[in-house]
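Hi C.,

You asked whether I'd gotten around to modeling the 552-residue construct. I have! Everything is below, sequence then structure, no commentary in between.
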Amino acid sequence: MLLNLSIKNFAVLKHLELDFNQGLTVISGSSGAGKSMIIETIKYLYGKRASTDDIRYDTDRSVIEGVFDLPETAKLDALFRRHDIPVDELCIVRREILPSRKSMIKINSKVVTLTALRDIMNEVMIIHSQGSHLTMLDNKRQRYYLDKFIELEALDDYKKYVESYQSFKQVHNKLLDLEQKNKTRIEQIDIYKSYLSEIEALELEENSEERLEEELHYLNNFEKISMSLENIKEKFSQENSPNTMLFDIQEKLMDLVPFDQDYEAYFKTIEAAYYTLNDLELKVSDSLSSMDFDRTRLNEIQQQLQEINRLKRKHNKTFDELIEYREELRNDIYSLENITESMSNLVKEKDCLYNETETYGEKLHAYRLKHKHQLEEKVIEILKTLDITHARFEIDVTRGKFSSSGISQITFNFSPNLGEPLKPLNDVASGGELSRVMLSFQTIFSQYNDHSLLILDEIDSGVSGVVASKMATRMKQISEHMQTIVISHLAQTVASADHHLFVDKTVEDNRTVSVAKYLGHDDHIEEIARILSGNNITDEARQNALSLIEKF
């Protein structure tokens, strides 16, 4: 949902800072006050292409910033990862519109493209205005809504279809890859064998790089190690060597123990140290007698480590990944040398998975055909409550290509008037009918939507009376599932608001400026009364306004 909207130097909006809440927010005000400009700024956050005409005259840029609490969905998470956008508790979207016709776009301080912004915000909000198309109801989304309504994804056959389809796609892609490799098979085998020969020559084993580095470190410090051992040996060779001193101390402590038991612990400690020093003397002697600096081995290790590092850079891999890559190369070489057999096996596997996927796809197709009437009846029911009494709505479920959701192609067909043929929804609905159809679908599907924000820009234009009240009721219902922001001139819609934002215009320094504020209870009534009766507000209009509010 949208939490805060900050606007600077956008047309008549000099500087607005607006907080938004959950529920239904209705924006009203006189014509030309700047209501639609507020929605235009949200469209910029949605991904509208920048226009220099929107920059306030005599300023160097427009700045729009929105703070969103985004829905937690796997698709949004994937989009943030794909576009390398940092994830935070809240999402801050910023647009700067510059006179150079360029636009700076940032999400959580990361500069992104317009495409990235659209990808993400398309999962966050839906914007609908008079005359716009039902882009939210393309064929993929129509299938999504039908499946949600008839709970297709809860079926075991759906889960089996998805698993089978994913396996089919994997095998299909492997086969395509193998077919591509077959075109340059001999050349590819030579390349792979060359890579493999280089890696195998190093006889890599787990932790062998670490062991080579340790041995290199030892040889590089051979002189220092040798001198230290000689110094220790010399200490042991002296007349007053450490172990001789400890032996003398041990004898004296033995004399004291019968008189003071506290010295027994010291005696044992010195005794242990004496034997430890004897062991150390033997160890040092053994080390010195076996030490032999091997210049050839040093050079060999250095060359081997250099070769390992060269291959790591060449293949852009770590040491452990090089070992894994060696096995991959062996497998790839085997596959290419036996490509006919490999392709034959993959074709058989693909055919088997195709048949399995088709079987489950047919079951899902039959389920859709059997249960589609449930959604058809629900849509017609709501359309009739919105005064489209002769509405007809039918869902075409036809066979199409494999997709992640099945083999069904879904088309919503609609006829608003008696005697008119059914046509695809986007081809027939327009104006007020379009608004009511859209409102019907939003009423049904708002609970299934992952979107958290719905913008409705004067979709109640051209209706009045009972229909206006019913449309307001539907908007109120939708707002229970997703944040809804509406621009309206109708008293019924304004009366249904949880939050009433009033937009007006004033003059500052001989320039028109739009201002906006949330209305309290009394001002809320006064504004509805103004809509009902004009500027000459009567007590009767106020009473009618209060009655309307109480209805919602």
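If it helps when you're writing up: The chain has a mean pLDDT of 87.

Thanks,
B.
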